[in-house]
Write a structure and sequence with these properties.
Helix content is 34%, strand content 9%.
Length: 438
């Protein structure tokens, strides 16, 4: 129902639009109502009619339950034998006794009217799953993801554990450790060492650390350490396996690398050595498909803008040299702006995306249209083309895995792992790994 005040406001706006030259149908469509609704709201004298449904006289149906039948339903439902039984079972039990009072839905309606539609029995009523928590990272150090995964050993049934922390914005591995046991103490050491390496003590805004619902990552000692460091913990929803996709995707990339041993690691030192080499490759040499094929270390250090601008300029020069080879604009090298974890709506990153567009020159579009006097333009003359049409190279790469088998992810913002390029200090990784559990 629409209140009288809301009706009056809508009618005033529609009248203003019509006074400005708009048609009634267009104004109503913009307001989200039908023109017939506007006509129904207006009285003959031009005033607005309030909703008459609350005051409508609705006669009682001839087949409605009588007062005696309603009282009988309440009395039966309150019998001791039915004290913990819902109407869905009361009705069949009465039917087995040759008694029919009313349908199951009638039982529900009558009990609801008497305030007795509570959950019966000791079991808790079902609760809807909460929506996933959305985190947006627009710079390094804002959102971290961590998890733990198994690394197989040569001995069947024995495992090593890779603890890993990933920066959502840059995709850089900022902390990792490898241990031979799954323990909250190892998680505490990892997050404390990563916070020290990333210099969290010197920054005012602390990151959010998102992980799964594993007992290790939710242990009291871990939460106490996060509270002491000022890091806000975030966890996946219960029984939801894809609320931490970036860490899971990173583990997929790691275990499908050619150097990953098929038969497992001989000992913990071998696992740590492999983890150190993988993190160095991933941070400093791996060109990530989700961040325009720059390395995580370059993006973490802020060097990706200059690199992508240089690529854009190169493509612009190539287009000017041989315009006939370019039927549309050049490849999109615009830096990835904000990255979302479990996005609820795309509008959360619209602002950040609008601030990160490349431009060929001041007040000029990033990708100017192709020259009018080239063969491609002549071939396509007369064809209506949408301004949103883009070449295959410009379309976002939505495939699940990159060309090199790397599984795309959507997070990034922090570091604690070695960085040999793009401003890294070249620190060698300590005998540890990264966080995340499959």
């Amino acid at each position: 129902m629409t209140r009288l005040e809301d009706r009056t406001t809508l009618i005033e706006h529609i009248n203003e639009a019509r006074a400005g030259g708009a048609r009634l149908g267009q104004a109503c469509a913009l307001a989200g109502i039908d023109p017939r609704t506007v006509q129904r709201w207006r009285k003959h004298d031009g005033t607005i009619r309030e909703d008459r449904r609350p005051d409508a006289i609705r006669p009682t149906p001839s087949h409605a339950l009588t007062a005696e039948e309603r009282a009988q339903i309440v009395a039966v439902a309150n019998e001791p034998r039915f004290a913990e039984i819902p109407p869905a079972r009361i009705v069949p039990m009465l039917a087995d006794e040759g008694v029919y009072i009313a349908s199951e839905s009638s039982f529900h309606r009558v009990l609801r009217a008497h305030g007795q539609m509570n959950h019966r029995g000791r079991a808790k009523p079902p609760r809807p799953s909460r929506p996933p928590t959305t985190h947006v990272a627009a710079a390094p150090g804002q959102v971290w993801c961590w998890d733990i995964t198994f690394l197989p050993a040569l001995v069947t049934g024995h495992w090593f554990y890779l603890y890993l922390i990933l920066d959502l914005y840059s995709r850089k591995i900022v902390g990792f450790e490898v241990h031979d046991s799954d323990s909250a103490d190892h998680a505490v050491d990892l997050v404390r060492r990563t916070a020290l390496n990333e210099g969290l003590h010197a920054v005012a805004a602390k990151p959010v650390l998102h992980g799964d619902n594993g007992a290790t990552l939710k242990a009291t000692s871990v939460l106490a350490m996060l509270n002491w460091l000022g890091i806000a913990p975030s966890h996946s929803r219960p029984r939801v396996s894809n609320d931490n996709p970036y860490a899971e995707a990173l583990f997929r990339t790691a275990k499908y690398r050619p150097e990953f041993p098929e038969r497992g690691f001989a000992d913990r030192d071998a696992a740590r050595d492999w983890a150190a080499r993988f993190v160095d490759w991933y941070n400093n040499m791996h060109r990530h498909s989700a961040i325009r094929y720059v390395t995580p270390a370059e993006r973490h250090a802020g060097a990706d803008h200059a690199i992508l601008q240089a690529r854009h300029d190169l493509y612009q020069r190539a287009q000017r040299q041989t315009p006939a080879r370019w039927s549309r604009q050049t490849r999109d090298w615009t830096p990835i702006a904000a990255v979302t974890l479990n996005p609820e709506r795309d509008s959360a990153i619209d602002t950040a995306a609008s601030q990160n567009q490349l431009s060929g020159s001041v007040d000029a579009p990033a990708f100017p249209s192709r020259p009018e006097k080239n063969n491609a333009a002549e071939r396509n003359a007369g064809q209506a083309r949408s301004g949103a049409a883009r070449s295959h190279a410009q379309r976002p790469l939505r495939r699940e895995h990159g060309e090199d088998g790397e599984h795309r992810t959507l997070l990034g913002v922090s570091t604690a792992a070695p960085s040999a390029s793009a401003g890294g200090s070249g620190r060698q990784p300590h005998d540890a790994g990264a966080g995340g559990r499959e």
